[in-house]
Design brief:
single chain, alpha+beta, Structural Genomics Hypothetical 15.5 Kd Protein In mrcA-pckA Intergenic Region, Chain A, Pseudouridine synthase, eleven-stranded mixed β-sheet, four-stranded antiparallel β-sheet, 27% strand, elongated
């Protein structure tokens, strides 16, 4: 028999939904059969599966170890206190990611959320099965500090809530708890959390602006294109792409370059890179959307081999809402990550010194 104590990351959901997560290799028919036969019980009683779980509820599995391991996809053993821990290839992967990606730093953390500073060159989430990413690092980091989290991973995984390109550095918002994930996702969706970036673009911009357009993505090339002003008269329909909106403010501008602060009002794949390139001011070092001649000169002078874009600041709204209660500790706060060393070196090398105000 195995007993699982429901924690706050499992509470509030139906029992059958929890069981489908806990036993991913079992079909719905098998789960309901085990409930009918009382091979799975809730607080020592027969359950139907529609019950809402509460913290401290006990779900018991009257299976052999082999059956439980087969349907859960995990290996189980008792810890020194007689409790049950699950072990599988995922846990080793999390530990490996945590050890390998030591350059990731934590900017802010509370019980529900974590804000990480991701260096350039690290993926946010997996592109291929063997990738070690910030997402695996996050779980490895939490397991190092909270070993009991391993018991919850069968039904809940902490996760990043916003993605950055591999070569974009800076702040990534992460949910440690289910409530944190849900609250962050709502605030990102309704745009109440404001996200700012620093970059250097080709050309001299002197005035702030908000640029708008419609973005479509070519899945084969992983390249997006932006249409600024679709001609509705030709098709009589709205464009097929996603509406995008990007605001920018020049910080310093001279010698054919501009240091920009960019606010990502909507958040789509490659939005800042493609949107600025579409205005004739591509990011330096951007080999997908940028100017090859400029990129080659900067590579030779500074060793720049990737686009220069840094998620420097996030601003949380100033008051709590019922939609995001888990973010109470962060309301009204601003979190910042300093630009990477290479960014600062290039900024100084191009003499892009912010004007005093």
């Amino acid at each position: 028999m195995r007993s699982v104590t429901i924690g706050r990351n499992q509470a509030g959901q139906r029992l059958d939904k929890f069981l489908r997560k806990y036993l991913p290799n079992a079909g719905a028919g098998f789960i309901y059969k085990m409930l009918r036969k009382k091979n799975i019980t809730l607080n020592g009683k027969k359950a139907e599966g529609s019950e809402l779980l509460s913290v401290e509820d006990q779900v018991c599995f009257f299976f052999s170890d082999e059956t439980l391991e087969k349907f859960s996809g995990q290996l189980f053993s008792e810890d020194q206190n007689g409790g049950i821990q699950s072990f599988g290839h995922e846990h080793a992967e999390y530990a490996k990611a945590y050890q390998a990606l030591r350059k990731i730093s934590v900017i802010y953390e509370d019980d529900d959320i974590l804000i990480a500073d991701k260096p350039c060159g690290i993926l946010t989430q997996k592109a291929h099965s063997g990738d070690l990413t910030l997402n695996e690092w996050l779980i490895g980091y939490l397991l190092e500090r909270e070993p009991l989290l391993g018991q919850e991973l069968a039904s809940f995984h902490p996760s990043v809530c916003n993605r950055l390109d591999r070569n974009t550095s800076g702040l990534v918002l992460c949910g440690k708890s289910l409530a944190g994930l849900q609250s962050l996702s709502r605030c990102i969706q309704d745009r109440s959390i404001r996200k700012y970036y620093r970059t250097i673009c080709a050309g001299e911009l002197t005035e702030p602006a908000v640029i708008r357009g419609y973005l479509t993505k070519n899945q084969t090339s992983n390249r997006v294109s932006v249409v600024q002003e679709p001609d509705f008269r030709k098709t009589g329909e709205h464009p097929s792409g996603d509406y995008i909106e990007t605001a920018y403010k020049p910080i310093a501008s001279q010698n054919g370059f501009t240091l920009l602060e960019v606010e990502l009002i909507t958040g789509k794949t490659h939005q800042i890179r493609a949107h600025l390139a579409g205005t004739g001011h591509p990011l330096i070092g951007d080999y997908k959307y940028g100017d090859a001649g400029i990129n080659q000169k900067l590579k030779k002078k500074f060793g720049l081999q990737h686009h220069l874009l840094h998620a420097c600041r996030v601003v949380f709204p100033g008051q709590n809402t019922k939609a995001a209660p888990a973010l109470e500790s962060a309301w009204g706060k601003t979190f910042q990550a300093p630009c990477p060393e290479l960014f600062v070196c290039i900024q100084k090398g191009l003499d892009l010194v912010p004007k005093e105000t």
